[in-house]
Write a structure and sequence with these properties.
The protein is an alpha/beta fold and 240 residues long. The chain is 33% helix and 19% strand. It has a seven-stranded mixed beta sheet with strand order 3-4-2-5-1-7-6, sandwiched between helices. It is globular and about 45 Å long.
Length: 240
């Protein structure tokens, strides 16, 4: 069963090699580290990292972030060579950043790296979450997903009049532990607003329902016109 979860965005600014000694938006980076540290401190026997990607699939738990997906100069081809000499595809950035956050928190236990396609239907996301939690193992989830990328004219998708309301509704649902509200997010609207978190939030809902977790929001903002939220969720019946 899923006993605890945290939600983080996946901007490249979380990678120290890309930002140098002085982090960009230090409050966001620290919030992500704090949330993941709390996730690890809950001592789950397994952690599922769920992140958006081009297709739905599970990656080898030993896979790690290739910084070259953000900055080609930092890529090492040797790191991605398989034993037969073929080159591995890069781990999706959302999962790579999630794996990095777990490593930084000192987590060395078993993990599942679960990619979820952007076009995955709501029901499929919910079923996937239910399947991931359908075990007696005490499971934690690290859910990597961004809100709208259309919060102001300089945003990646430019300004959209519904973007701020979309992010506000998502934040309210998370603050209340209202996971059913996350299942009501329309995929078409999420795609229009470039909100990559929609499928993985719905995987989380499928994994934790019918429980109503207590939520702690550690960060909520829209730097660069992109909605970022960092949250820690814990089911009330779990006492540590």
């Amino acid at each position: 069963m899923v006993i605890t979860a945290c939600l983080c965005p996946w901007p490249p600014i979380l990678v120290r090699d890309l930002t140098g000694r002085d982090p960009v938006i230090p409050g966001l980076r620290q919030a992500c580290r704090t949330a993941v540290r709390r996730l690890v401190d809950a001592q789950p026997e397994l952690i599922v990292v769920a992140g958006p990607a081009e297709s739905t699939r599970t990656w080898d738990q030993a896979s790690r972030l290739d910084p070259g997906v953000f900055a080609p100069a930092l890529s090492s081809d040797d790191d991605r060579l398989q034993s037969d000499g073929r080159r591995d595809p890069a781990l999706p950035p959302s999962l790579g950043l999630g794996a990095l956050l777990l490593d930084e928190a000192g987590y060395s236990g078993p993990r599942i790296l679960q990619a979820v396609a952007d076009d995955e239907p709501v029901d499929a996301c919910s079923r996937l979450g239910s399947a991931l939690s359908d075990r007696t193992t005490r499971t934690g989830m690290l859910v990597m997903g961004d809100g709208s990328a259309r919060r102001d004219p300089r945003a990646p998708g430019h300004l959209h009049p519904q973007a701020a309301a979309f992010d506000a509704a998502t934040e309210r649902a998370m603050r209340r532990g209202d996971l059913r509200a996350l299942l009501d997010v329309p995929p078409a609207l999420a795609r229009e607003l470039m909100a990559t978190g929609r499928p993985v939030w719905q995987v989380l809902a499928g994994a934790m329902l019918p429980q109503v977790p207590a939520a702690d929001i550690l960060y909520a903002g829209a730097p660069f016109g992109v909605g970022y939220i960092v949250a820690f969720l814990q089911v009330a019946m779990f006492t540590g």
